[in-house]
Each structure stands twice: as C-alpha cells, then as structure tokens.
C-alpha cells in the first residue's frame, strides 16, 4: 500500500540538492527549463507528456496533435458490430492542457535533428532539447496490388478508428442475409495482433443476431496467431460453422484485390464478397520516416532502456512506431512505454542513468457481449531488445462466469487507460 507523508525539511534540502545536481549536469537547466516536444497525442504520446510533467513540473512540454479529438481503437470492433457508439471511443485534450502541457493542434511536418526543431503545418518551428515520436502507424498503401487509399473507401481497413470504423459498420448493415464477409489479415508485425480475430468474432456475433445465413472468412498471411486456441474454442462454442479461417500454408495470403468488384485473390483461389475488410501491411507513422528515425523495415529501432532512437540523436520513439521486440503493438504497451520513456528522459536530462524498465501489458479480447479472455505479459530489455519474461493467458477451458468476469475487466481496463491518458 502506498503511504504519503508531508515532506520534512531534510527531504526538501535533499530534493533541492538533486535539482541543483541536475542543473549542473544538464546545460538546459542552467539556461532555463528543458523543452520536450512530443509528436502524437495517442496512447503513447499522451501518457508520455503527462508523466513528464508529473515527474518534473519545470519541464516545458508540448504535445503536437492535429486532431482535436482522439478516437481510440480498443473496443472499436464493438462499434463495427453495432454494440457501441463511436462517441464512447472519443477523448479530448483539455485535461492534458490543464496539466500545463502546451497543445499544438497541428501536424508535425518536418524534424531538423541538427537544429533540434520540429516544423508544424503552418510553418512554425518548435525548438526542443528532447523529441518524442509517438505517431502510431501508417498503412502501406503500396504493398498490396489493388489496395491504395482510394480502395480503402470501398474496402475499409478500419485499422485507425473513426470514419473507417463507421464505414465498415454501414457496409455490414447494408449487406443482405447470406452474404460473405472477408477479413484480409497481413503478416506480422501489425498493430494489435489479436484484433483481426476479435473482429471476426464480433462480426459473427452481429451476423448471428441479424443475418444468420451469412459467413465470415478470414484470409490470413500467418499460420498461427496470439491466443489462437482460445479464439478457435470460442468460435466453436458461439458461432459454429460461421467463421472459417485460411492460414498461410493453406493459401490464405491475399495477393491482390479489386475494389471495383469486391474481388480478393489469394495464393490458392479467388473470392468475391459482400463486404471486404482489408487490413493492409503497416509501418511507423510518416513523420518517423521524415525524421530519419525509421529503418528499411519502416519501423524505428530504439535502445530498449531509454527508447532513444538508434538513428537520430535526442529523439525517442514509443508506441506502435518503435521496434520493441517481444512486446505486441498495443495501447497497453504504448502507454507503459510512454511512462518509461518519460522517466528515462527526466533521468537523462538530470545526468542520471535511466533504470531498465519492466513493462506490464494486458490484452483483452471480447468475442461476444459478456465473453472475453486475456493475455498479460511482463517485458524487460534483454540483449538490446524487449523480451517477454512472464506471460499469463486465460485458460482454454473456463466457465461462462469466468469469461463474463474478464469482459467486465476489459471494460475496466479501457476506462483506466483512457482516464490515465486523457481524463
Ligand atoms: P496512436 O494511439 O495511434 O496515436 C498516434 C497519434 O499520433 C494519433 O493521434 C495521430 O493523429 C498522431 N500523429 C500521427 N502523425 C502525426 C504528426 N505528423 N503530427 C502530429 N501528430 C501525429 N490495444 C490494446 O492494448 N488493447 C486492445 O484491446 C486493442 N484493441 C484494438 C482493436 C483494434 C481494431 C485496433 C486497430 C487496435 C487495437 N489496439 C488495442 C491497439 C492500439 O490501438 C494501438 O496499439 C495504440 O493506439 C498505439 O498507440 P500509439 O500512441 O503508438 O499510436
């Protein structure tokens, strides 16, 4: 249990000494408060900006984010299945601003690593001592023949929540009973590896209750996936005969699509579907590439202790955009990385060596209302990369009460992580 007590005079003197030592160690402290700029106000960036100010209220923290409202992906599969409104996914930045964080409501367009400035869309240049990149993902619209940005208006990806989520929902509502819904899943790495299967489950729930002669076909560029046994068992139990999955070795990899006819071509066959959800391959948000922080893979290599870029000085990368070894790309991970990165920056500005982080991650999958399971992991730096050092998965055989409890915990998790970031 945490106990708080009033600071004694000795604490204050000790605190002053630490600050004085930090001021000597860090030239920016001598000249004025260090400036930390964070690009991207999602789960990673919001957690990082707030933690920076909590750890050291003298820091000048600026959060650059073009959207006035953040739309969260976790639970967006429920929106697609008509179980939740998009508004329940949306959060503003007022509470973050109230923490003393300056919000620049524009996109960052350029990073000059030598001059240590970030340019905004209107041409303003913001100087920084440390820069944090948390831009999330970008779809690779050049990776799958036939699938570009225009195609996504016909075959939505719904892999960034918002308009795309609503489009997929509308297409499901408009389709006739007896139709086929195809979900095309890319090879790893991707944002939230289990989310395509959660989506297949919740779409099956929608079809079972509204259009019971319809089917879901998952065309997958992977052979196995996270929590596979749990998903497969739940499909047998809840949606018998409704969901089929074709993995890589059975020819499930999608090689091209034709948005004009809703046709999908795989290694083994051709399909035409009433609704096609193409989740394309992904890469780090574009600003990471512009900053020179992304490598040939499209993702950003980092030092796992400090989240410092291996390619650009004074730049740190967190969240989906970074290469974090065994940590799945998730909101949970982005938030934990944001906090650990903030601590590393504060320590390093004060001339202290950052501590090796121990990151916690929880991933819930809701496959029907009141039915969920989860995976919890602990991740620590090992040999210059993050490794999963502990993992707990829900049992494959469990009572409906246990699944119900996990569904309630999933909602609680969402509430906690969003209050932490935006509340
Ligand atoms: P984001 O949260 O995407 O934030 C990036 C921000 O950067 C955005 O606000 C964007 O506008 C901003 N940005 C980008 N470029 C610029 C720029 N140039 N200038 C300024 N700002 C910029 N995770 C879980 O933990 N649990 C779940 O249950 C879960 N479910 C999911 C379900 C689905 C369907 C999907 C698609 C994802 C799910 N995730 C889940 C994953 C989770 O949403 C992401 O991993 C998480 O959002 C990553 O956080 P981030 O901060 O890296 O990126």
Task: Describe the fold and architecture.
This protein has 423 residues and is of the alpha/beta class. It is built from eleven helices and 24 strands. The protein has a five-stranded parallel β-sheet with strand order 5-2-1-9-20, covered by helices on one side. The longest helix is centred in the last third of the chain and has 23 residues. It is globular, with a radius of gyration of 23 Å. It starts with 8 loop residues before the first helix and ends with a helix. The structure holds flavin-adenine dinucleotide.
Q: How would you state the average pLDDT, rounded?
A: 93
Count of DSSP-assigned helices: 11
Q: Going across the biggest sheet, name each strand in turn.
A: 5-2-1-9-20
- Overall morphology: globular
Largest sheet: 5 strands, parallel
Task: Extract low-pLDDT stretches.
Answer: 1-30
Helix fraction by DSSP (H/I, runs of at least 4): 25-40%
User: How far apart, in Å, are the first and last alpha carbons?
Assistant: 24 Å
Using only CA atoms, what is the Rg?
23 Å
Q: Could you tell me which ligands this complex binds, including any ions or cofactors?
A: flavin-adenine dinucleotide
Q: How much β-strand is present in the residues? A: 25-35%
Which structural class best describes the helix and strand composition? alpha/beta
Structure summary, number of beta strands:
24
């Amino acid at each position: 249990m945490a106990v708080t007590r009033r600071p004694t005079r000795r604490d204050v003197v000790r605190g002053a000494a630490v600050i004085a030592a930090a001021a000597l160690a860090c030239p920016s402290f001598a000249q004025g408060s260090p400036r930390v700029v964070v690009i991207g106000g999602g789960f990673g960036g919001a957690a990082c900006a707030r933690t920076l100010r909590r750890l050291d209220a003298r820091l000048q923290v600026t959060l650059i984010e073009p959207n006035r409202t953040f739309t969260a992906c976790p639970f967006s599969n429920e929106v697609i299945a008509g179980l939740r409104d998009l508004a329940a996914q949306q959060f503003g930045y007022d509470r973050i601003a109230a923490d003393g964080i300056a919000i620049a409501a524009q996109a960052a367009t350029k990073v000059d690593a030598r001059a240590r400035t970030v340019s905004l869309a209107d041409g303003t240049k913001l100087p920084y001592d440390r820069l944090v990149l948390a831009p999330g993902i970008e779809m690779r619209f050049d990776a799958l023949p036939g699938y570009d940005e225009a195609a996504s208006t016909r075959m939505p990806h719904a892999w960034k929540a918002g308009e795309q989520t609503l489009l997929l929902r509308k297409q499901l509502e408009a389709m006739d009973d007896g139709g086929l819904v195809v979900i095309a899943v890319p090879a790893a790495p991707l944002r939230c590896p289990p989310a395509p299967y959660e989506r297949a489950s919740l779409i099956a729930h929608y079809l079972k209750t509204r259009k019971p002669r319809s089917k879901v076909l998952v065309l997958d560029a992977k052979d196995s996936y996270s929590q596979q046994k749990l998903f497969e068992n739940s499909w047998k139990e809840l949606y018998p005969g409704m969901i089929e999955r074709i993995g890589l070795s059975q020819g499930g990899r999608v090689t091209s699509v034709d948005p004009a006819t809703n046709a999908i071509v795989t290694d083994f066959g051709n399909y035409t579907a009433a609704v096609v959800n193409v989740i394309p391959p992904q890469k780090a948000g574009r600003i990471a590439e512009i900053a020179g922080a992304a490598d040939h893979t499209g993702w950003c290599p980092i030092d796992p202790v400090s989240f410092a870029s291996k390619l650009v000085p004074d730049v740190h990368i967190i969240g989906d955009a970074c290469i974090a070894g065994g940590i799945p790309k998730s909101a949970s991970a982005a938030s934990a990385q944001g906090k650990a990165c903030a601590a590393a920056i504060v320590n390093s500005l004060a001339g202290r060596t950052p501590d090796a982080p121990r990151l916690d991650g929880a991933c819930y999958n809701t496959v029907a209302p009141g039915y969920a399971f989860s995976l919890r992991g602990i991740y620590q730096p090992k040999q210059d990369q993050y490794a999963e050092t502990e993992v707990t998965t829900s049992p494959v055989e469990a009572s409906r009460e246990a699944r119900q409890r996990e569904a309630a915990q999933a909602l609680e998790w969402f509430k906690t992580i969003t209050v932490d970031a935006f509340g």
